[in-house]
Amino acid sequence: MKQVLTIAGSDSGGGAGIQADLKTMTNWGVYGACVITAVTAQNTLGVQGVEEISGQFVKEQLDSVCSDLNFKALKTGMLANAEIITAVVSKIKEYNLPNLVVDPVMVATSGDLLLAEEAVEVLRDQLIPLAKVITPNLNEAKVLLGEELDSGLELEQLAKRLHQLGSDYVLVKGGHQKGEMARDLLYNGQEFIDFTVARVDTSDTHGTGCTLSAAIASNLGLGYSVVEAVERSKEFVTKAIKEGCPVGAGNNPVNHLVKV
């Protein structure tokens, strides 16, 4: 069984973070292992508290799993602070971990900040250049580029600017745009590949970004190309949103267990 690693925070509500990643990986038929960067007190209504793990213990977790398991791909989610990002970067290089998917988690769907401001530069300059693909949404793209962006900026322009940060591929998620269609755009520095689907009319989208990046990492681990991995993962997430899990009183999670 192919082995895939997630490095992210824990969501006590089970809809995002490590929990969403491991559910998604299991559904795709890969063996998911995890390194936890933070523990949250969280439910469908929001984030009530966060406790960050020390950078040193993040390193210990990485040494433990990387010295024993043979990862074909990995993803990062919530990394919390600069110390943790630096620790993750050092171990990715040390163990030469392949097929890195960076979901630059900065803001929760509820609006809660999940990455310290001083850590953005470290993520942008040290982690992203190691990535096979990064998966920012429009809000995260603004933070990564360090400036306010024109709301009318074309996704193509945004993808080009993000690609200059050093990843092999950029998947710009345009789901926050208005309109009947939801458009994501994949760019590798040479060509654009458009992924557009009808927008699903629901607020139950908690964990969408985590689930998508975990699915992409799973498919890369299974040997698919980036384009194939993104295409398969997009179809999966669209179904997961349509068949969401109404488990709480707030923004409920997508259904990580829909048929792949």
N- and C-termini, Cα separation: 17 Å
Low-confidence stretches: none
| Alpha-carbon Rg, integer | 17 Å
CATH topology: UDP-N-acetylmuramoyl-L-alanine:D-glutamate ligase
If classified by CATH, what would the architecture be?
3-Layer(aba) Sandwich
The main pleated sheet reads as: 9 strands, mixed
Oligomer: single chain
Instruction: Output the CATH homologous superfamily.
Output: Ribokinase
Whole-number total of structural domains: 1
Strand order of the largest sheet: 3-2-1-4-5-6-7-8-9
CATH class call: Alpha Beta
**Strand/helix succession:** EHEEHEHEHEHHEEEHH
Structural class comes to alpha/beta
Task: Give the DSSP E fraction (strand runs of 2 or more residues).
Answer: 15-25%
Tally of DSSP helical segments: 8
Share in helix = 25-40%
Number of strands: 9
Rough outline: globular
Descriptive key words:
260 residues; alpha/beta; UDP-N-acetylmuramoyl-L-alanine:D-glutamate ligase; nine-stranded mixed beta sheet; 8 helices; 23% strand; globular
